[in-house]
Structure formats: structure tokens, C-alpha cells
């Protein structure tokens, strides 16, 4: 009997040790740990602060797919449009500390706090990667009487020229403001929520001119449904499809400004989470998916990460303050 009791006691001790070991291992791990390293807490979500179909949506979906490929993490895309981007950014602000949320960022992140009463600025978030620079083209319907950017400026001196902008703080709003400052003319603006809505209105003859990213209108330019008058870039594009389009500067309108495309994480995440997403972004940059995104959207590749991205944002924010305040 004594030996039987001792036997059960030994078995109980071994079981207790095993359970204790399992409990300790569970307590020392976090959701998503992989071989002791950091991983996001479950599936990730990419917030796009504009509606589907525009440049921000294209960017967000390309980044999500690229990061998903290099990390193995499922990344869904969620459009939260409204308020020229303010709705999406405000929703993202509420995700502070969450390591599995990302947002497809662009110039609106800087412009919104300068022009609207919002509760955030770029320092509220964790900058991860700037993919590159996205300039715009001044485009019109194929039957428009305008043939150059100078024609548009000359017309605006004498009559009402209706210009569409995809949000009151968008890149096209900034570009038209810069043109007004440089030439002294004034445009009659009609705001829309996305580049796709601007494109539809231009094709429908409801507006006169629009400033859109090449990636949003390349198909219409190639089909002849739109014509480009000039590019608001420092130099002409090297892409074959755009090489013949003169810059605004060539036509006497000294304006160039690029919207950045990139992604951010919420504020308050750990250093490990920040480095995880930066490392994933760097791996994404080396992929065919990144090259395809840059080329298909006719962008200028210029990737920077982390602290370098912050430095870029500081300078870009200072430039925008001169225009928007």
C-alpha cells in the first residue's frame, strides 16, 4: 500500500511539473510570437482613408498584398472614407498601441491638421515607410479647347474655370493653390471624395480640368478619353507613355509638387513592432510586387523608412504650412 501511495505521489509530482512548465511557457509568450521573435497580434488590417478606386486605395491594396507576401500575415483592407480623409485618420488614431493596424498614408496626413480641426497630426502615428513620390498631371476631356497649362491659366484670368479636387486638402488642391499663387489666377473648385469620382465627373463633362496622378488616368490617356496638358513634376517622366508630356515649368507655370505614398502604424506601439514592420517594408521594397506597383502607377521610386521617413515628413510639413496656412 505504501509503495502504491508513493507511486501515485510521484506521478502527481511529474504531472504538476508538466502543468507548471506549460503555464510558464504560456505566460512568457505573446499572441503571434514566432520562434521567440515579435509578430503582430493576429491578422492585420490596412486602413485606407479614402474610397475605393483612387490612388490611395491602389496604394493601400498594393502595400497590403506585398506585406502579406513577405510576412505571411493575413492583411485585410478597409476603406473608411469621409471628411477628405479625416474620418479614416481619426479612426486610426483610436487604434493607438495596436500592432496589427496599418494605414495607407499620403499628403492628407499633413494637410488635414493644417486646415481642419482634427485631433491628430503626423506625430500622433508611427511612420514606417515612404514608398515613393506621386506627381500629378493636368488633364482635360479630349474635346477641351485647352491644349497647354498656359491655356488654362489664360482662361482663368478671363472666365470661370471649374477645377475638381479629390478632397479639400488633397494633392490636387495643393497643386491648384500653388498655381494660383504662382500666376495670380483663381479656380472655381468642386471637391470630391476620391480621384475616381473626379475622373467620372471629368469624363461626364461636369468640370473643366483636373489634376490627377498618372496611375489614375493612364488607361484613359492611352485610349484617348483624356488628354494631358502638362505634368507638375520637376522633370519630364521617363516612362514611355508620359515622356512627351511637358512639365508645367516648361510652359511658364513654375509649379511642381509630389504627394508621397507610404504607410504608417498607430502611435504607441512597441519598438519591436515598429522594427518588425520596417523590416517587412524593406523586404517588400526588394520584391517584384513593389517594382510592379511603382511602374504600374507611374511613380518615382524613393523609399525611406522609420526615422528617415519622419525627417521627410518634418520637411514636407514645413513646406505645406507655407501653402495652406
TrEMBL record:
Signal peptide: 1-25
PROSITE patterns: PROKAR_LIPOPROTEIN
Keywords annotated in UniProt: Signal
InterPro entries: BUG (IPR005064), Bug_dom1 (IPR042100)
Keyword set includes Transferase: no
Family: Belongs to the UPF0065 (bug) family.
The name this protein goes by in its record: Tripartite tricarboxylate transporter substrate binding protein
Organism expressing this protein natively: Agromyces humatus
Amino acid at each position: 500500500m505504501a509503495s502504491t501511495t508513493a507511486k501515485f505521489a510521484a506521478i502527481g509530482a511529474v504531472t504538476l511539473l508538466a502543468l507548471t512548465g506549460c503555464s510558464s511557457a504560456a505566460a512568457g509568450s505573446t499572441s503571434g510570437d514566432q520562434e521567440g521573435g515579435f509578430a503582430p497580434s493576429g491578422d492585420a488590417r490596412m486602413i485606407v482613408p479614402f474610397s475605393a478606386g483612387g490612388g490611395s486605395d491602389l496604394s493601400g491594396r498594393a502595400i497590403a498584398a506585398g506585406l502579406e507576401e513577405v510576412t505571411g500575415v493575413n492583411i485585410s483592407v478597409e476603406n473608411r472614407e469621409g471628411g477628405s480623409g479625416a474620418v479614416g485618420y481619426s479612426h486610426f488614431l483610436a487604434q493607438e498601441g495596436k500592432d496589427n493596424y496599418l494605414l495607407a498614408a499620403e499628403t492628407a496626413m499633413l494637410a488635414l491638421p493644417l486646415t481642419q480641426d482634427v485631433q491628430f497630426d503626423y506625430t500622433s502615428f508611427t511612420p514606417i515607410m515612404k514608398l515613393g513620390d506621386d506627381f500629378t498631371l493636368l488633364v482635360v476631356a479630349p474635346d477641351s479647347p485647352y491644349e497647354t497649362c498656359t491655356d488654362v491659366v489664360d482662361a482663368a484670368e478671363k472666365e470661370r474655370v471649374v477645377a475638381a479636387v479629390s478632397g479639400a486638402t488633397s494633392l490636387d488642391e495643393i497643386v491648384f493653390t500653388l498655381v494660383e499663387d504662382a500666376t495670380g489666377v483663381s479656380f472655381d473648385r468642386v471637391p470630391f471624395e476620391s480621384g475616381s469620382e473626379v475622373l467620372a465627373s471629368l469624363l461626364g463633362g461636369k468640370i473643366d480640368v483636373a489634376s490627377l496622378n498618372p496611375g489614375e488616368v493612364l488607361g484613359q490617356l492611352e485610349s484617348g478619353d483624356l488628354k494631358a496638358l502638362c505634368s507638375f513634376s520637376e522633370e519630364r517622366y521617363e516612362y514611355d507613355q508620359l515622356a512627351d508630356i511637358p512639365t508645367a515649368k516648361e510652359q511658364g507655370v513654375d509649379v511642381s509638387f509630389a504627394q508621397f505614398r507610404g504607410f504608417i502604424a498607430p502611435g504607441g506601439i512597441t519598438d519591436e513592432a515598429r522594427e518588425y514592420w520596417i523590416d517587412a517594408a524593406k523586404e517588400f521594397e526588394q520584391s517584384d510586387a513593389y517594382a510592379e506597383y511603382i511602374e504600374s502607377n507611374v511613380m518615382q521610386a524613393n523609399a525611406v523608412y522609420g526615422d528617415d521617413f519622419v525627417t521627410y515628413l518634418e520637411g514636407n510639413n514645413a513646406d505645406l504650412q507655407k501653402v495652406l496656412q
